[in-house]
Here is the input.
Amino acid sequence: MEQSTPGTSGIEHMPRGGYNASWLNRHLQTDVLEYTDRYDVPDELKQRVIDSLDHLGSVRGLHEKNAHMALSLVSGIDAPRILELGAGHGRLSEQIVQMHRSAQVTVSDLDPTSVHNIAGGVLGANTRVRTKVIDASAISEPDDSYDLVVFASSFHHLPPKVASRAIAEATRVGRKFLVIDIKRPSAIPLALISAGALLIGALTSPRSKARAFIHDGRISWLRSYNRAAFTSLGTAADPAMVAEFLSPSDRLPHNIAVAYSRPTFAVHESESRRS
Ligand SMILES: C[S@@+](CC[C@H](N)C(=O)[O-])C[C@H]1O[C@@H](n2cnc3c(N)ncnc32)[C@H](O)[C@@H]1O
Here is the structure.
């Protein structure tokens, strides 16, 4: 059974595998930061990881699939206002503006270098796009500014208390908050992934792009949340938070997608449908 706490107290101690996580699962997590979260490493190293994510996402069709999922949540709205958090390379937003002719998109990241790069590219030149440095856990936007907030492949970067604050913030500025991320496996597969990544990393040249990507990838798996944890994080943000789990593509079995919303928005939506 999925277990959650009634308020924010104690959420910082929740294991990434949820309150009922096994002993081994609780030990397979880390507070070590990924390169992309560090400001004591060269930007060039961080951007190498972002480039690899862009490449891998393009090869697997991930950006396109994530954009389809995001747009399915705003399907009844003519000119949906969408905020992307943790955009990194910005490909998800790029797909959104290509697929939807009137979507208005704010593309953001905590890292100013990534935002600067996006602003200087094709996406930044689009008149329906705005770029901004935004911290997902303290969103500098007014209440109800967006129809949808989306955060892809990034939620695991946030420790539980910060992650819960991000859910509260994203559902304050947006009607729905779509989180798409890697799904935490059970303990044995997770142990094998972690050990395999350590081994492959050790055999890879320290200067290769792959080495930095494997380093961050291993930490990502160890910091990933499972379904029970996603539910508890939502409840900690607001006991009435609605968490709807969506089915990611069959070709992406390692992903999890959850749309958070507050019941107040559900009321607004039914009222606006009636009027
Ligand atoms: C693994 S990358 C994902 C990039 C892209 N969304 C993708 O799907 O490939 C994680 C991104 O989250 C950003 N990030 C980390 N903490 C954040 C926070 N508190 N608020 C906003 N973005 C954050 C990082 O700067 C990084 O660009």
DSSP finds eleven helices and seven strands in the chain. Confidence is low (pLDDT under 50) at residues 1-9, 270-275.
